[in-house]
Amino acid sequence: MRPEVAARVNINEFNMLKMTKTAEQKTRGEWAVDSWQRYRVVQQPEYPDVEAYHSVLQKIHTFPPLVSIGEVEKLRAKIADASAGRAFVLQGGDCAERFIDCNEHMIANRLKILLQMSVILTYGIRMPIIKVGRIAGQYAKPRSKNNEHVNGLDIPSYRGDCVNSFEPDPLARVADPQRLLQSYYYSSMTLNYIRAMIDGGFADLHHPYHWNLHSIEQTKKWPAYRNVVDRILDAVNFMEAFGGTRPESLGKVDFYVSHEGLLLGYEEALTRKDPVSGRYYNLGAHTVWIGDRTRAIDGAHVEYFRGIANPVGIKVGPGCEADELLELLAVLNPKNEPGRIILITRFGINHVEQKLPQVVQAVQKAGFQVAWSCDPMHGNIISSNGNRKTRDFSDILTEFQHCFRIHKELESFLAGAHFELTGEDVTECIGGAVELKDDDLAKNYETYCDPRLNYAQSLEIAFLITQLFQENNA
Ligand code: PEP
Ligand code: CO
What we know:
The protein is α/β, with parallel strands linked by helices. It has one domain (5-473): TIM Barrel (Alpha-Beta Barrel), CATH 3.20.20.70. It is built from 15 helices and 14 strands. The strands form 4 sheets. The chain has an 8-stranded parallel β-barrel with strand order 1-2-5-8-9-10-11-14, surrounded by 6 helices. α5 packs parallel to α15 (455-473). Mean pLDDT is 91; it is low at 1-11 and 13-19. The protein binds phosphoenolpyruvate and cobalt (II) ion (CO). Cobalt (II) ion binds next to loops.
C-alpha cells in the first residue's frame, strides 16, 4: 500500500502547488515574530500587572533556548518519514503538567512509560517510533469557561501552572507573570534530567521484566500481553547474539518534547532566528501544537504558527470542517513541506466515523503532505457518577480502531497516536484490564485537568495497538 500512497502524494503535490492563493493568504502581510499581536487572540490570561508581565517576557527572551535547531530539524525529517508511512509518532504525557511533578521519580516514570510503550509499538508496527513527550513545558491550558464554581465560590478557572495556582482560592487564581519564569525553569530542569537519563542509558531495552508490570500481571489479559513481552525479549537477545546490534546502541534513543503553543507572549519570547537560514524557530520545544480552541484561521495563534519552522501539530475536533482545514494547511504549510504538519484528529467515538473520512479525503484530494495522528482522548470525556471528568478505556481503544480502519480503507496511513497518560498508578480513566470502576476514581485522582491513562492502562493500549497492527499485517 505504501508506495501507492507516496505516488499519490507526488502527483497531488503538483496540483496543490498550482492552487491559487486563498483569500486568507492574500490578506496576510509579512510575518514577524510579533505579528500575531495584530490578530484576535483568545485563551490568554489577563495579567493585572502588565508591566511585570512584559519584564518577565523580556527576561525569558534573554535566556538560552531549551532545544536546538539541529534537533528540531531532525524531528522534522522523522515526521516526514511518518507522513510517508515509514515511521510512527507516539506523543504522550500529562494533560496539564505540574510544577510539583518536577522531581526525579515523576520525570523518570513519565519517560519510562513512553519508552516502554515505544518498545511494544516498535515490535507491533515494525517501524521506528518517534517519541514525543507532552512534557517540559506543557503548563498552559485552554479553558471553556473563564470562571468555575468550586466549594460554593465562583473563581477564575485554573489555566495551568504557568498562569495561576490550582488551589481553589480567588487570590491564588489571579494570573501571575512570575509563573512564566518558573515555567521556563521547570521546563529546563525537566529536560536536563531527561537528557541525562537518556545519555546514561536509561533507555536500555534489555530488561522488559524490570518494567514493573505487577499491576497488569494480575489481570486476565496478561497471558496475551506476556507473549508480546517474551517475543520482544527474544528478538533483542537474538539481535545481540547475532551481532547485528551492539548492546549499547539499544540503550540510545531520541526523545523529543512538545506542548500546546498557547501563551503567545511566552512562545514569542522563546522564538529565535536562525542566523544561517533566516528562519524562525520556537526553541522552547521541538514541536508545538495548536489546540482545537485556538485554530481559527483569522486568529493570532495561526498567525504565530505560520512563521515558525518547527513541525507543528493541529488538533482537529468535530467542529472543524474540511474546507477550514484546507485553508489552515495552505496558511501553515504553503510550500507543502513534508514533516511540517501533524494532524491530530480528536473527534470522539460519536463523530469519528462521519468526520474522519471527510477530512482525510479532502486532504488527499488537495495533495497536502501531513502525518495523521489519532488523539482518542479529547473527544471522549464523560462525567463520572461522582461528577469527575473521566474517559472509558474502551472508548479510547474504539476511536483508535476506527481511525486505523478508516485510514486503511482510504489508502491513507495512520502515522501516530496522541495520549494523555502518566507513569503513576492514578485512577482517572475507567476500564482497561485493571478494570477501574467509577467508584475507584476517588482513590487516586490527581490530574489538574483531563483524566490520564495510568501506567497499566498505558502499557495495555500499546499492547492493543500492537495487536491491531499485527492482525492487519498478517
Ligand atoms: C489537550 O491536548 O490537552 C487539549 C486541550 O486538546 P484539544 O485542543 O484537542 O481540546
Ligand atoms: Co487534555
